[in-house]
Amino acid sequence: MDRELLLLTLKFTKEAPFVDVNELIQTTSNSRVKNFFKEIEGFGIILQPTIDGGYTITSEQRARLVILGALNGFDFEKIIKELTWQEFELLTTFVGDEFGYAASTGLNFSTEERKYQIDVILRNKPYVLLIDCKHFGGTGKQSVLRNAATEQIQRVEAVVAHLEKLQSKLRIRNWKKIVFIPLVITWLDDEVFFYEQVPVVPFSKLRSFFQNFYLYIEDIFQIVINI
Q1: pTM value?
Q2: HEC per residue, the chain
């Protein structure tokens, strides 16, 4: 896998959903670019050609390129920063889907006190993971992530307090038991840590987190509802 062309493709398409082949060729060679597109097609990422010889690329395909790069051992923090925050949320849903979670994004609701937003919801009966995705880089972010964990507890508590009107939006109507869990996901390449029993999980460790989910569960903040 050509890591340079993968990174350039992400970089050049961050602001517009088009791949300018000539722009890529200027950095290397025509044959190398052709080989790159042929290779990613082999992984199911098939870009649609445009009339001017370029390609269109969707947010889903950009997110899948990041997964492909990660699986090939590329510098994860370098490639993921080329995603928008919406694509980072989409990337999170892909991993959840791998582990049997039904996913949705963008739950917004209001109470008398304030407005709330849940970035990603992953559902695998009886668990409902309410996720805050933190898309930033750099160092010294631990305090921000700790605050995010505290705020995510507040969002979960607000969801539970207004569950009757949110059941349809959460797609959990008719569930007899619901276990709500707050989760913060960051693309910082660090270690998993817990703050106020809320898991703060770097995206690079997300698969491992799901693989070991039932080892963590006793230590995770959760609100159990029996209906």
Answers
A1: 0.84
A2: CCHHHHHHHHHHCCCCCEECHHHHHCCCCHHHHHHHHHHHHHCCCCCEECCCCCEECCHHHHHHHHHHHHHCCCCHHHHHCCCCHHHHHHHHHHHHHHCCCEEEEEEEEECCCCEEEEEEEEEECCEEEEEEEECCCCCCCHHHHHHHHHHHHHHHHHHHHCHHHHHHHHCCCCCCEEEEEEEEEECCCCCCEEECCEEEEEHHHHHHHHHCHHHHHHHCCCEEEEC
